[in-house]
Amino acid sequence: MKPDARRPLGSPADEPWAVTVVRFALALVYLWFGLPKFFAGASPAEDLAVATVEKLSLGLIDGSPARLLTAAAEVGIAVAVVVIPRAALVPYAVLAHVAGACAPLLLFPEVTWRSFGVATLEGQYIIKNALIVASVCVAFPLRGAPWRTSGQRSALGDARGEQETSPAAVLTR
After folding, report:
1. Contact 64/49 with Cβ under 8 angstroms?
2. What is the pLDDT of residues 21-36, one digit of tens each?
């Protein structure tokens, strides 16, 4: 049968395999960036991560504890994304982490910006977190989230029969 070009494609969240792929990609990214931080000097982002945690904690957490805290948070999120895909805490943990990871854009503009609107390599590294936020919106549709509408179910389903929708489903209508 010939595909109809006028018919919009279904949402990625309508395909259970797509949500699984997004979850595993999120976990891979978090592991890839988090595991090296357990070893001093192994992560190219270590200095910026430590400086950010020091500044955000008002100096209460610095040096190795800051590095290890960041590593544990990132690896913990990776494990949670795969092991407990329906946990309501996971997207909030990711969003809190991304907020902290994006803080250097404001806290250390001399490191993250070459000029107005032109990010350094470090800045680009941080800005890629927009994809992580988008992925979380697709993989973890939340009840009461602004992108939810009635009458649609996510690929993850809902045992109580409540409808869930991803932002992708809303945008493809």
Report:
1. no
2. 999 999 999 999 999 9
Residue 165, helix vs strand vs coil: coil
Q: How far apart are the C-alpha atoms of 78 and 27, rounded to whole Å?
A: 4
Q: DSSP letter at 115? A: E
Task: State which amino acid sits at residue 51.
Answer: A
d(CA 138, CA 155): 10
- Cα 64 from chain centroid? 24
Give the Å distances, CA to CA, from 166 to 26, 126, 132, 151, 172.
16, 24, 14, 12, 10
Rounded distance, CA 127 to CA 135, Å? 14
First to last CA, the chain: 23
Residues of the chain with pLDDT under 50: 1, 7, 147, 150-173
